């Protein structure tokens, strides 16, 4: 059964026009079987992003893209708080007598959270997703 799944991955890659040397299909197969991320590194232009694009298209799921660059920090990869929205909300609540605890609970809720690619991937309802 496992070899059948591996052959299906190879077939999916071929149907999308991706040329595979066998190691890529095996890596994808292992990542999907173990439900773990597949981290691909290499110089620009070797097809790292293309692997994710092809597989996302083949299994009809969303591609979540994180552009990596020198100086990228967790703030830009995970999440940020929408400070302007939080400040505006606090300003609008002035004088209404809301407790500090209640205000904190509100402004640190999902409503004020800007999800970045890694958090989107982690919280995505479809467990078969690809990040590039």
Question: What would you note in describing this structure?
Answer:
The structure is a single chain. By secondary structure, the protein is mainly alpha-helical. The protein has two domains: 2-69 and 120-131, no CATH class; 79-114, no CATH class. 51% of the residues lie in helices and 8% in strands. The chain is built from seven helices and four strands; from the N terminus they run H-H-H-E-H-E-H-H-E-H-E. The protein has helices spanning 2-15, 23-34, 48-58, 74-77, 83-93, 100-107, 117-123, and strands at 63-64, 79-81, 113-115, 130-131. The chain has a two-stranded parallel sheet with strand order 1-4. Helix 1 (2-15) crosses helix 2 (23-34). It is elongated and about 65 Å long. The mean pLDDT is 84.
Strand and helix order: HHHEHEHHEHE
- Average pLDDT for all residues: 84
Main beta sheet strand tally, sense and closure: 2 strands, parallel
Helix and strand composition category: mainly alpha
Number of β-strand runs: 4
User: Whole-Å distance between the termini?
Assistant: 29 Å
Question: Could you give the order of strands across the largest sheet?
Answer: 1-4
Flag low-confidence runs.
none
Query: What percent of the residues sit in helical stretches (DSSP H or I)?
Result: 40-55%
What is the count of distinct domains? 2
Overall 3D form = elongated
């Amino acid at each position: 059964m496992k070899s059948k799944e591996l052959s299906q991955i190879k077939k999916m890659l071929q149907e999308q026009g991706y040329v595979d040397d066998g190691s890529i299909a095996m890596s994808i197969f292992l990542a999907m079987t173990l439900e773990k991320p597949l981290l691909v590194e290499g110089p620009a232009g070797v097809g790292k992003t293309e692997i994710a694009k092809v597989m996302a298209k083949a299994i009809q799921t969303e591609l979540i893209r994180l552009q990596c660059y020198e100086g990228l920090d967790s703030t830009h990869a995970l999440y940020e708080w929408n400070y302007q929205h939080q400040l505006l909300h606090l300003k609008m609540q002035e004088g209404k007598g809301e407790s500090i605890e209640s205000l904190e609970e509100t402004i640190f809720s999902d409503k004020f959270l800007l999800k970045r690619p890694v958090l989107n991937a982690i919280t995505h309802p479809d467990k078969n997703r690809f990040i590039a």
